[in-house]
């Protein structure tokens, strides 16, 4: 749904074809607005395991594409009549309710305490929802109290992300964690906080982690341990690198992004990839 909604919103924006906007609005209403069809604003059953648990804290990461849906909804609302003011207010109410469940539920609080990329992707969601629903002060508090702490605790002094390296797909999870940090930095920009250049007292930061990964992205070095399963995620990481190239004014990142796009799957259009293997904690 997220991929379809984004594609339709962009198709309308670039072509002006009202049919794209109308079908996108139909999706938004079905999933988040119409009481007879909409999803409940919680993930109590996310990554549930029959016979073991109804739901898991790790299920929350499955919603990391909702910020992209919000972005596309704003694009449509500002440029078409397919999404009305009433529709947007009801969508905001759904997001507000989901955010409240995230922050207050036991599952949400456990995920908020995640020590690896799960915690950072929680911040991505929380910040996106807080900004969208006008909770700017809450977003600022999260950045200062949680996100900066994650930079200090997840990134080593050489830029390696040791919580990800110990997993079965170390390169994938390291890149995925860095994508989360860059996405958080993009959101922090919206409330006037520069995380792109933020450093801890001993020099840990988002750019340090990215530069640690660059030789592996460029292919000049092989990662210390191979992923147990490879997958084509070049498009997602090219997006990450293009944002880095723009913010750091670096042709190095831009060239690496272009190289990754040459080998990307043309059907991969999601900007964020959910980590659906939350059980892989070791």
Measured between the Cα atoms of the first and last residue, the distance is 31 Å
Overall CATH architecture of the largest domain: Alpha/alpha barrel
Q: What share of the residues does DSSP label as strand, in percent? A: under 5%
Helix/strand-derived class?
mainly alpha
How would you portray this structure in words?
The protein is an all-alpha fold. The chain folds into 2 domains: 1-42 and 56-113; 134-275, Glycosyltransferase (Alpha/alpha barrel), CATH 1.50.10.100. The protein is 60% helix and 0% strand. The chain has 12 helices and no strands. Helix 2 crosses helix 4 (85-104) and helix 6 packs parallel to helix 9.
Topology of this structure?
Blueprint: H1 2-15, H2 18-33, H3 66-79, H4 85-104, H5 106-112, H6 117-132, H7 136-154, H8 162-165, H9 170-189, H10 206-218, H11 234-248, H12 251-262
Summary of the model, kept short:
The chain is an all-alpha fold. The protein has helices at residues 2-15, 18-33, 66-79, 85-104, 106-112, 117-132, 136-154, 162-165, 170-189, 206-218, 234-248, 251-262.
């Amino acid at each position: 749904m997220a991929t379809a909604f984004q594609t339709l919103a962009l198709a309308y924006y670039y072509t002006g074809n009202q049919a794209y906007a109308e079908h996108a609005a139909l999706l938004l209403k079905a999933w988040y607005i119409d009481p007879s069809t909409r999803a409940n604003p919680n993930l109590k059953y996310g990554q549930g395991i029959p016979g073991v648990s109804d739901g898991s804290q790790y299920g929350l990461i499955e919603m990391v594409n909702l910020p992209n849906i919000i972005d596309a909804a704003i694009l449509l609302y500002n440029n078409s009549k397919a999404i009305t003011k009433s529709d947007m207010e009801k969508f905001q109410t759904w997001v507000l309710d989901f955010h409240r469940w995230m922050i207050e539920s036991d599952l949400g609080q456990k995920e908020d305490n995640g020590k690896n990329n799960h915690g950072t992707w929680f911040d991505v969601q929380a910040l996106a929802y807080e900004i969208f629903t006008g909770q700017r002060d809450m977003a600022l508090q999260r950045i200062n109290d949680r996100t900066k702490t994650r930079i200090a605790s997840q990134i080593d002094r050489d830029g390696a992300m040791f919580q990800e390296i110990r997993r079965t797909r170390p390169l994938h999870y390291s890149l995925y964690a860095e994508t989360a940090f860059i996405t958080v930095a993009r959101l922090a920009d919206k409330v006037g906080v520069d995380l792109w250049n933020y450093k801890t007292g001993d020099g840990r930061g988002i750019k340090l982690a990215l530069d640690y990964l660059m030789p592996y992205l460029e292919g000049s070095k092989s990662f210390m341990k191979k992923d147990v399963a490879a997958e084509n995620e070049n498009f997602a990481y090219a997006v990450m690198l293009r944002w880095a190239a723009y913010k750091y004014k670096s042709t190095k990142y831009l060239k690496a992004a272009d190289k990754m796009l040459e080998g990307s799957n043309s059907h991969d259009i999601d900007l964020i990839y959910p980590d659906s293997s939350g059980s892989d904690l070791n």
